[in-house]
Structure formats: structure tokens, C-alpha cells
Design goal:
Elements: H1 5-8, H2 12-35, H3 45-79, H4 84-118, H5 129-184, H6 188-202, H7 207-226, E1 232-233, H8 234-251, E2 257-261, E3 269-271, H9 277-286, E4 296-304, E5 307-315, H10 329-341, E6 346-352, E7 356-364, E8 366-367
Parallel strand pairs: 2-4
Antiparallel strand pairs: 1-3, 3-8, 4-5, 5-7, 6-7
Length: 384
Amino acid sequence: MKQHPFIFSDEPRYRIRRHLAFWVFWWLFQSILYSFVALEAPGAYWGRMPMVMTESLIFMAVHISLSYSLLYFVIPRYLLQQRYAQTIFWTMLCCLAAAALSGTLAIYVIRPIRIWMLGPYRMSPARSMGMDFFLSLMAGLRGGITIGGMAAAIKLMKYWYVKEQRNLQLQKENAEAQLQLLKAQVHPHFLFNTLNNIYANTQATAPVASGMLMQLSDILRFILYEGSQPQVALAKELKMVQDYIALEQMRYDEQLDVFIDVPQNTDELTIAPLLLLPLVENCFKHGTSHMLEHPWMSLQVRLEDGLMQLKLVNGKTALPATDQAANGIGISNVRQRLELLYPDKHIFTITNDPDVFIVNLSIQLRTSGTSRKKTGRPLSNQHA
């Protein structure tokens, strides 16, 4: 389903337009509503409008501050992280601060403006400063809760709608992927038995070839059986990637300089299967395979509180074909899968220099249990 860009796009032009439209609507709504109840400005409805529009514009600065504090601080940092006690605390604090600021503006800014525009003889009977502040505080609290609640409701409805659309798209793509996998799984046991027979026959006469067959068999087994799972152990994914690199290294007759640094304590973390293989495959396809002298590559993986940081670097030559490295099908598929599987929980950057290609990928991974890890913040910002 196509989403309307004015509502859902994160491009600055659309975001600015919809935010302006929202606040202009709120300003006009406030002005029209309170023009009917501006008791301190007797007379025709249109005669009260300029004063009320001015007051609404002043109070809107408070409403904007409150709304964006909720949208970009409270909701992403606490509510979406299921930290409900902190959500309630910060929401109440923001609303009370907005109410106090509204009360102060009403006493020291709005009231002098009314006296200047209406004259003191047309003002309501004098009240104590404390009573005026209290009534203004309550009015500010009511207005803050109204506009803050409205902005938060729109934000959350958008967030949940987009999340639901992502889930539906992911289910559709998973169904298509499983169908393609079933088509590819033509007698896999026969394939593995044949590979094992070739391995047994070449073990004595061609040990290098037998080793390659064994690694190829492990990779195919992972693709066929583990690839259909929603999550696999990170250790298995890294093992499969290292088997693939080892196969490529044999193809280079050990002339490929490889540096691999991956952690060992990864059993409790899981990752979407076959997410890293296209990155490594791209490294060989568009990088080292074009280097006639001293081909090299480096793979480093770091883990910290469930955050996996991968850095993949390979040398390359400045050929026109290598420009496809950052825009190939494999990289595009990885980007799409990351958006679907790890929304707001990943950072994926590519540096494509003339002589080196660098991939940096950070993902907040899940644990092997049923619950997600709740440490840290989202890795990308939520947009309203």
C-alpha cells in the first residue's frame, strides 16, 4: 500500500509542511474558539479576534515546546522502550512546566497586552495576583494536556501504522522467500550425500579439494536449513561467513591477505540469517577480485551490551565497474532487510574510496530468549 508522502515521508520539505499545517490549524482553532469566550473583551466577535489571535500566538510557543519535548524526548526514549514509570514522570513534569510558563506569560505578558489593547476600564474586576496565577496555571495545564495529547496521539498512531505496514511487508517477503527456498530445495539430502561421497573420495588424493567441499557443504546446509528461520545464533552466522571467506582464500591460492577478528562469546545473541553474507560476497565481487597484486580484506566484529558493530574493509582498484559496489543488488537487499527487520535499531554506512571500500554496520541484536534486549536507545531517530 502506497503511503502519502505528506503524512509519512521523512523528507524535510514534507515534514516542514505538515508541521506548519498542524500548528496553523491549532492557532486558528484556538483563536476561533476563545473569541467566543473572551469575556474581558466585550463587543462584536470580530472585534475580539485580533486580541485572541495575538494571545494564541504567544501561548503557542509554550505548546510547541511541550509537544516537541514529548515527541522527541519522552516518547522515543521512554515510552517506545517500555519504560512506563519514567514516561509518566517526564510527561507530568513537562506538562507542569508548560503550565507554569503559561501562567507566567498570562500575568506578565498577556495581561499588559490586554490593558494596552482594551484599556483598564474594560478589564474584568481585579483579582489577587495569586488567584490570577492559579487560574492561568490551570488554563495552561488544560491547554498543554490537550495539545500535547493530540500531538502524541498522532505520533503514536503514525508509528504503529508504519510498524504494522512493515510487519505485513515482512510477512509477505518471508512467504515469498520461503516459496523460493522450497523451489530451491530439490532433494537437498541427495545433494549433501553426493558432496559427502566426493569428499570421501578426494580426502586422500586431493586434501585441498576435500576441504573446500566440506566447507561448501556447511555453507549450503546453513543456507537451506538455517536460512528459513527468522533468527539464528550469531555464532552460526559468523561461522558461515568465515567458511565463505576461507573458500575464497583457497581460490586465490593463499595470496589473499585476510584479517578476521570476531568475538567468541556470541552464543546468547541472534541475528537474521544470511544478513552478513551479501556484504562479504560484495567485498570479493567488486573489490579483491579486480586486484592483480596484493588483494586483501579485513573483517572486525565487536559486541557491547547486545550491540554488534561490524567493520568490513577491502582493497580495490579504481575501475569504473567497482562503482557498483555501493549500489549493487546485494547491498540494496541488505538495506531493505535492515529497514524491515531492525527499524530504528541499526546504522548502515558505506565508504567507497578509489582504493578502499568500507562497510560499517551496527545492529542492536536480540538475545536467544523470547524478550528483546532493552539496553540503549534507538539507533536512528523517530520522525514525526
